[in-house]
Amino acid sequence: MSGDIRLEELTKIYGDVLAVDAIDLHIPPGEFFTMLGPSGCGKTSTLRLIAGFERPDGGAVILDGLDVSRTPPHKRNVNTVFQSYALFPHRTVEQNVAFGLRYKRVGGDEARRRVADAMELVRLGGMADRRPGQLSGGQQQRVALARALVLEPPVLLLDEPLGALDARLRVDLQVELKRIQEQLAVTFVYVTHDQDEALTMSDRVAVMREGRIEQCATPQELYEEPATAFVANFLGAANLIPVASQPGVRGTELALGSFRLRCEAEGAPHGEAVAMIRPEYVRLEPHGAEGENRLPGMVEEVVYLGFHQDVRVRLATGALVRADVPNDGEAPEYQQGDAVAVHLRARNLRVLAGDGERAVQDAQAAAAPEPAGTA
Amino acid sequence: MTTTAAPTTSRAPARTGRLRLRRDPWGHPRGLAIVTWIYILWSLAPVLLAIRFAFNEGRSRSAAQGWSLRWFWQDPTLSVFHDPTLRSALEQSLKLAGLAMLIATPLGVGLALGLQRWRGRGSGTTNRLTLLPLVTPELVFAVGLFLLFTTAFSFIGLGTTAQVIGHVTFSVSFVVVIVRGRLQTIGGDIEEAAADLGAPPWEVVRRVLLPLLLPAIAASLLIVFALSIDDFVVSQYLASGADTTTVPMRIYAQARAAPTPALNALATLMLAATLLALALAYAVFRVLTRGERGGRSALGQLASLEATIDAGGTK
């Protein structure tokens, strides 16, 4: 089975900006692989290097065992779907889809059959004679997809393909992309800055930052076991509490001022560290509740968000902890000014290496708003 | 309408005086419209007058003496069609414009493509240098060319060849501006997409770029034609004698000597040719970009096209 991608110390420099910093990566055939990160993290540059639109300044792109680093894009066996769709406005939908077949030496009935199949696959039947300008954004993106898939590439590169679509359409197309990918067993390399897209579709996700891969893992692993504060904050929300960490009796012992927390994870970093817990794992209990990993605090703010509430609790140590309290239809249990006990369950606590200040910077970097249309 | 203004006034009494100046800020700006129309009439009046006398029955260029086509071709010796000097001027103008159009357009398209792709050292400078002829006073430009053809390039010398080269030189810039504007609208993604689908570089140009550039190419052809046929200064400086006299030169020379309404007829023909070229450029551009996504890109194109035409008009 073809569609194997290997990047070896791949490097790209623009002027004095290191866009891609010696990336090593292996994407096995048939995987839905996502590169996720804020704008300027190098994800699009990496994709363009795989496509051949850019020449690497170092390292190699290896497709199915062949070094293609010096192969121009029209001779590479990969196809790309662009954020801007990049359809040919002077050609009909059918002519757009058929464009590449000529270079594969496919013609006549065979070409017609494949174009029809590709259009059927992306549910564009009946649109053959339209011009791209007469289609909606979602339909145009389907044409772009069909135009690439008709060539039966072992690898499909997708550069924020849903970026220009509205939210609802995006969800529909996510499902459809995943269906197509599974049906054709094509390797998908998908670039996005949208964590939901990354989590819902991918087999594996690489979170990128400043030209490097911060962490590469399955969506679940990334969410549950983030390696850094940057990853923790880029995927979902995270409470980050600076602590001192040392090996404990069962797991790791974390010192937070005069309080002690237990973390079940073995082999966590020791010394100065950051405790991480997702807001939805934080339990709020009545003031004075006894037991391990319970910290006293006061409710500072309650934000009503419909299906859940974001309760912000200021701990006695000064740290702020956000708790996600599901809306169960009862009246809110906690109000501003209430004294509560915060239960940070030992099995949900994670310990990240590094000092608190660095973690806060990382968290801010991850939360920085993404300017539209750049990556 | 006064009801809309009333609450505003009561809420901000300090502004009352200013609000009264224009009672209804959402209304039709009549004063502006009137001033605009006065200006348009004022600037068109001399042109309309000149055209009027082209159709004069008599010899006068200032008194209305009936209507005829005498000065176009009916008069056996003095009409544009029969007067050898006027006729040769018309032929020379058309020849220059035709040649300039056919040479400057492919040259400009190539230059625009090259500049678009050229990244790195020197590209910025070259970019600006290409646009230099647009802002250089034409007289300076013409004197420069004159010196060039009488000294360094004296093997070419003055005459039709020099005139064509001169016209091509300044009109290439316009072609570059038009084509680059279009290239920007097309965007680099489309070329990359074509290459990505397996098209080798030449095929990308042939199957994608040239068809998409067609409107800009058509517009360029006609605008170069309009620029060239309108030109006086460069043609004048690079002329070598009676047989290289163009229409604007003939009009200028004869206006002081023994003018007849045939001159007006000639000027009218010129005006018609220029307007026709520009209208065609506009129409072809509209038709060829029809159906492209959104109105904005097409509008942007037209804006740049019109700006270019304007720049040509003031040249």
CATH top level class name of the largest domain in chain B: Mainly Alpha
- Numbering strands along the chain, what is their spatial order in the largest sheet of chain A? 6-7-8-3-9-10
How far apart are the first and last residues' alpha carbons of chain B, in Å?
46 Å
CATH topology of the largest domain in chain B: MetI-like fold
Order of helices and strands of chain B: HHHHHHHHHHHHHH
* Largest interface, C-beta within 8 A: A-B, 30 and 22 residues
How many domains make up the 3D coordinates of chain A?
2
CATH superfamily of the largest domain in chain A: P-loop containing nucleotide triphosphate hydrolases
What is the count of β-strands of chain B?
A: 0
CATH architecture of the largest domain in chain B: Orthogonal Bundle
Taking the sheet with the most strands of chain A, its summary is: 6 strands, mixed
How much helical structure, as a percent, in the residues of chain B? over 70%
Relative helix content of chain A: 10-25%
Which structural class do the helices and strands of chain A define? alpha+beta
- Helix- and strand-based class of chain B? mainly alpha
Instruction: Give the strand content of chain B.
Output: under 5%
Strand content of chain A is 25-35%
Shape of chain B: globular
Q: Which consecutive residue ranges of chain B, at least 5 long each, have pLDDT under 50?
A: 1-15, 293-300, 309-315
Q: Please report the first level of CATH classification, the CATH class of the largest domain in chain A.
A: Alpha Beta
